[in-house]
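Email to the structure team, subject: Ubiquinol oxidase polypeptide II model.

Hi all, the expression group asked for a predicted structure before they design truncation constructs. Nothing fancy, just the tokens so they can compare against earlier work. One-line instruction: predict Ubiquinol oxidase polypeptide II, return tokens.
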Amino acid sequence: MPNLAKPAPTRLSKLKILAILPFLAVLGGCNAVVLSPAGDVASQQRDLILISTALMLVIIVPVMALTILFAWRYRQSNTNARYEPDWDHSTQLELVIWAAPLLIIICLGALTWMGTHILDPYRPIARVDEGRPVAAGTEPLQVQVVALDWKWLFIYPQYGIATVNALAAPVDRPINFQITASSVMNSFYVPALAGQIYAMPGMETKLHAVINKAGDYEGFSANYSGAGFSGMRFRFLGLDEAGFEQWIAKAKAGGGSLDRSLYLQLERPSENEPAHTYAAVAPDLYHAALNMCVEAGKMCMDEMMRIDAKGGLGMAGINTVLPLTYDKHARRGTVLGPGLTYVASLCTPADPMASRSALAPAPAALPDPAGLLGAGLPRPGLTRAPSASAAADAPASPTSPL
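Reply from the structure team: attached below.
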């Protein structure tokens, strides 16, 4: 009876298998979400990538093919190849060489110009998806995003809730994102929803998008921002209207209130922060985070800009610029270095230092302001009226402000 057993694999076949394994491991890490998104904006961006790639391949593929053809045809061993050492010009070949790339560049330029304007992240979307415009009277979902170290804070001003590392939106409803950061630049990116956009301290960027399919999608920071960057991820849920309302109700039932004092604790660096929600949020928290004035009594950036727009405070106001500079190192808990300093707001409470002490460690004892001279502005509540004897002894020349 013949032996039907299969022969054992040879050493060569084992080496082939081992050589293929690394390539299989690389393919196992592939994620095609960019080429198969669930949002209309991301789908249009995908189409832009594919069309641009196809147009460039119109030039690249023939060039690569001709390179191989010429190398083979005019190899040294091919004695049948035509030898023309004096050839130096061909009008027909020049037309092909210059006309084809020129047409491709014109097509790419037109495509890029249209895509840049149609897919402008600051431009409100006009359609839910292809063939379905946004219905008249539809109220977009407003989401305020703050990139913290190293977590994401999402505020829903229409519902009065806030979440950390958890984001949800109803299907086929436009979403308007307002995005900023607390200390360093990050990049807000949900590949299934739309392209990335940067989050920067003291600045606001915007993103308009829509999700068309219910599902659980990944979001993360696409810009390195420090030690906890790898864990700066969140889940984005696409829900139907009923599911979204249930998600909001669950967040409200979870309790907790995010006020300014709690925000100052939340913005401290932490890694791999678990998702959680707040049933209430201070209505002006995002404005304060954007304008770097969460601490009580601190002058907001927009307040200072309004002063500057009306002519500024003159030479005496020059020294107010440096204290307003945002010290990301101090806010991130750096042990060494100066403490937090800032310009007091012109609209502070009657006792700004007492308001500040409720949110921060008590400051060092202040010196007697009567003996201080300089070019800075007098801080509210810290100046003293000169006594009658001092006023009588003062020279006639103008005195320097405190």
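Residues 40-73 form the longest helix (34 residues). Confidence is low (pLDDT under 50) at residues 348-357, 371-377, 382-402. Ping us if the truncation boundaries need rechecking.
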